[in-house]
Amino acid sequence: MTERVVLAYSGGLDTSVAIPFLADKMGAEVVAVAVDCGQGGEDMDAIRQRALDCGAVEAVVVDAREEFAKDFCFPAIRANALYMDRYPLVSALSRPLIVKHLAAAASEFKGTHVAHGCTGKGNDQVRFEAGLAALNPELKCVAPARDYAWTRDKAIAFAEEKGLPIEVSDKNPYSIDQNLWGRAVETGFLEDIWNAPIEDLYSYTSDPSVPREADELVLTFADGVPVAIDGRKLTPFQIIDELNKRAGAQGVGRLDMVEDRLVGIKSREVYEAPAAIALLAAHQELENVTVERDLARFKRSVDQRWGELVYDGLWFSPLKDALEAFIAEAQAHVNGEIRLNLHGGRAVVTGRRSGSSLYDYDLATYDTGDTFDQSLAKGFVELWGLPSKIAAVRDRKDA
User: Is 42 annotated in some ligand binding site?
Assistant: First the structure.
């Protein structure tokens, strides 16, 4: 029986070369699966044809832009997902979506293996293979770059030898991954962490230091997810796409960080995530208005763990599913509107209103009409500090 490999296909050099390479190395038929996560670039039909021209027996293209926005980016908003309190999980969110469609294609085309283009140094190999293990434990995984020490110069030479219909160049020093939620750039001169990013690195964002008029907008949320911009009801994809343009034009969402990879090394990454940073800022502030104090305190630890699980490739894990149930309950009252000012690389909340608000003006005001009974505070403070006071008396006595 001929082996059949389902390949996560991007249309670039590495995955295009993987088609004839896997056919030669394994004697296998290759089915290419390309998933549109809003990364832009080439037409998906052109990518499908390239896969066939490179030797794939079948090529599938999936328009998953709305699915990615609704089922992956929106849950990240509800979880305030920022790995290491900064990174909005740009690549990590797209991988389980791709895995889902790889597993479906393997079932449809009777695949025995799934292949991806990840190296042994990165997080994505874990995200692909842990996800596939959860969805279809019978599938075997192969990674040419990792399993066969496949380097870029070897890939270029192989492509030229085979006459593959792709443009090859060894001049681009960067590794770039992008989708609707953001863009990640690494390698090249960035590997020296003293080197500052240069303006040519950026694509989703304009230079925030250039003087320009601010952009102000109002985001409407329901159950913790955005549903409208300036009163216009939009789909999840449309909301993120519009905010990428508007926040990106103001230079919002640039990040330069050294992060802790799952494989145990530290890596320098430059990110652009204009919509993600703007939406997370708005959502966090609406939670401040609508979520009760102890629930909010506990949710912060849940949010952190949710982000770590997704970063670590455990989207399909039982713990992540259980945390989702908690988060859904915590979002029941996260409804209302947030006014955002986008300017100078920042997304700043300037107004908030909600029918589910826990903010009571009459309790909060210091003016006449204050309904807060301050006479109750004296006894409360004494009781609140009593355990520490008793301990202090004891410690003095012992000393």
Answer: no
